[in-house]
Design a protein that fits this description.
The chain contains five helices and six strands. Helix 3 packs across helix 4. The chain starts with a helix and ends in a 6-residue tail after the last strand. It is α+β, with helices and mostly antiparallel strands.
């Protein structure tokens, strides 16, 4: 029996499924050509324990990505996992602002450090002779960044924030807001923009290669 007119109208009104999700500003567009990727951003022999010194120096000179190449998005369907990349800002431009904010709010420094908040602002805080103070100082900056997220009332998992080092940004530390292994937990673009404005950072974050986990490894999509 042929369908009546009413059933035909219902079929015509049935909404079509949306196949295109909104673009994420920190991931490559689906049609972006990344055929020019070099090692370590493209898969290579995972049995290589370490790169020659010259190759490491070349990697250190590689620029950070504005958007994440899709090949570097971990997948549980793959038997290899990509290197860790941090969506991050270099701390140089806002380090002093974070530190001043910590002093203004008397934020506690980590217990393992001998340094405290009661000293002249002109005194040098971090020195090569006191590694403990250095660790405490950067932990303080990280804690301050998390404190700022709460002040701004941003929906942002605090464990995503990390002050760390990058292989292709050797002269400075970076403020990592999340990694390519944490995309599902990443904050909204509006939240990232709110933090950028607070930091008075002129640029959007970029993708920096982790200092330690910079190679492809066997596994099923998980970082560790």
């Amino acid at each position: 029996m042929a369908p009546d007119k009413s059933s035909r109208k219902q079929e015509m009104k049935r909404p079509s499924k949306k196949t295109n999700s909104p673009p994420v500003p920190w991931i490559d567009p689906s049609n972006m050509d990344r055929s020019d990727l070099v090692v370590p951003f493209k898969p290579f022999d995972m049995h290589v324990e370490r790169f020659p010194l010259q190759r490491l120096r070349e990697i250190q000179q590689l620029p950070a990505f504005d958007t994440l190449p899709r090949i570097l998005i971990p997948s549980s369907k793959l038997e290899i996992k990509p290197p860790v990349l941090h969506y991050a800002w270099i701390t140089d431009r806002f380090e002093s602002k974070l530190f001043q904010h910590a002093k203004d709010h008397n934020l506690p420094i980590m217990r393992s450090s001998k340094t405290h908040m009661k000293y002249d602002s002109d005194d040098e805080y971090c020195s090569d002779e006191d590694e403990e103070d250095s660790i405490g100082y950067y932990q303080l900056l990280q804690d301050t960044a998390v404190f700022v997220l709460k002040e701004l009332n941003l929906s942002w998992a605090p464990d995503l924030i990390d002050i760390t080092s990058s292989l292709n940004c050797r002269d400075s530390l970076i403020l990592s807001v999340f990694t390519n292994y944490e995309l599902a937990r990443a904050p909204s673009p509006k939240s990232v923009e709110a933090l950028r404005l607070w930091l008075e950072e002129p640029d959007q974050p970029k993708w920096y290669l982790d200092e330690m986990d910079y190679k492809w490894r066997p596994g099923y999509g998980r970082r560790w």
